[in-house]
Write a structure and sequence with these properties.
- It is a single chain.
- This protein is α/β, with parallel strands linked by helices and 371 residues long.
- The protein has 2 domains: 215 residues, TIM Barrel (Alpha-Beta Barrel); 99 residues, Lyase, Ornithine Decarboxylase, Chain A, domain 1 (Beta Barrel), CATH 2.40.37.
- Helix content is 28%, strand content 25%.
- The chain has 11 helices and 21 strands.
- The strands form 4 sheets. Strands 1, 11, 12, 15, 16, 17, 18, 19, 20 and 21 form a 10-stranded mixed sheet that branches. Strands 5, 6, 7, 8 and 9 form a 5-stranded parallel sheet that branches. Strands 4-3-2-10 form a 4-stranded parallel sheet.
- Strand 19 and strand 20 form a beta hairpin.
- The longest helix has 19 residues.
Length: 371
């Protein structure tokens, strides 16, 4: 195995699911988002772990992710959160997946495919209350439901919406979305239409908006122990599941004025001890961390020097005593009393913690532990 790998703690993931259950109570269903290879943590292992911990539904981005889960033998309900094209309806039905519907064309295609397979297909209606991505406008819902009411192989299992700023401290926008979505649900039910499942809350809303818990919640980021907003750790106990590890593969002492790396962006000001680490942007470790980021070696922080390469990078270990080839290096995670979080890396890269973990390349092995 490569000396660079991501260690995934499945025990932490199960603990985070239990934390969500504690937040929402026993009657609210939990859909765990496992899209994008379970946020870089590994689809198969994470899906099995969250289901064992009490999750009820899995959420994927598109058809192929759902098929992969079915091929792994996972029989739990799977909701496709994206809007699929009508020509993919036959496969959605064949694999027993639940589709998000917000176009008449897809609804018709799904019903036709289900009729041809002598089955019924469950769907969730997406309402756009302010995300501006996919979903029907609130004023279109009743006419849309009337238009698809004769599609007798279609089963409306759920209605949902999504919050774009539940992580922000200005609550007005999200509270307005909750109100608008509630009005939509009441209008649908007033017309005698049964909706078994309503859902809206992502990770941030699970913590900050109890009124948004409804019949089901959709945690993603928090299941992996990552914070959906600053200060979230004060309100819920989440355990980061991913540690990105490598090892020192080469050491050298360089003189003052020695250039390090492509572009000669770092020039040693004094005699320095430089360690080479076999990880780079080809592994999904951002090049924008060049001359900015830090890693942990022997429980101390070492600064990245020079431009990060595709497969390697260099760090200054002059101030760390006893560094040797083979020493463990932590790029994300903790070592001793020090910790480098995905949130810290995200701030340095002007991005979000979601991207930090999702960007980890497939060529980085995932090693699973349970503690």
């Amino acid at each position: 195995m490569r000396p660079t790998y991501a260690e995934i703690n499945l025990g932490a993931i199960r603990s985070n699911v239990r934390e969500v259950r504690s937040e929402v109570g026993s009657l609210t269903r939990i859909l765990v988002a496992v899209k994008a290879n379970a946020y870089g943590h590994g689809l198969e292992q994470v899906a099995q772990a969250v289901l064992r911990a009490g999750a009820n539904v899995l959420g994927v981005a598109f058809l192929e992710e759902g098929i992969e889960l079915r091929r792994l033998g996972i029989g739990a309900p799977i909701l496709i959160l994206g809007s699929e094209l009508p020509e993919r309806a036959d496969e959605i039905v064949r694999w027993g997946l639940t589709a998000t519907v917000c176009t008449h064309e897809l609804a018709v295609a799904l019903s036709t495919a289900a009729r041809g397979q002598h089955r019924r297909v469950q769907v969730h209606l997406k309402v756009d209350t302010g995300m501006g991505r996919i979903g029907l406008k609130t004023g279109e819902i009743l006419s849309f439901l009337e238009a698809i009411s004769e599609l007798d192989h279609l089963v409306l299992e759920g209605v949902y919406t999504h919050f774009p700023v539940a992580d922000a401290y200005n609550e007005r926008y999200t509270l307005g979305q909750i109100r608008r979505f509630g009005e939509v649900v009441r209008k649908i039910r007033a017309h005698g239409i049964c909706i078994p499942i309503t859902h809206a809350a992502n990770s941030a809303a699970i913590i900050r908006y109890p009124d948004a818990h409804m019949d089901m919640v959709r945690p993603g980021l928090m299941i992996y122990g990552l914070k959906p907003f600053r200060g979230a750790g004060l309100q819920i106990q989440l355990k980061p599941a991913l540690t990105l590890k490598s090892h020192v593969c080469f050491l050298k002492t360089v003189r003052a004025k020695t250039a390090i790396g492509y572009g000669r962006t770092f020039i040693a000001k004094k005699q320095s001890r430089i360690a080479t680490i076999p990880v780079g942007y080809g592994d999904g470790y951002r090049r924008s961390l060049s001359n900015r980021g830090q890693v942990l070696i022997r429980g101390k922080r070492a600064r990245i020097v020079g431009n990060i390469c595709m497969d390697q990078m260099m760090v200054d270990v002059t101030q760390i005593k006893g560094v040797r080839v083979g020493d463990e290096v932590i790029l994300i995670g903790e070592q001793g009393t020090e910790r480098i979080s995905a949130e810290e890396i995200a701030r340095l890269c002007s991005t979000i913690n979601y991207e930090v973990v999702c960007a980890l390349a497939q060529r980085v092995p995932r090693v699973y532990v349970d503690r």
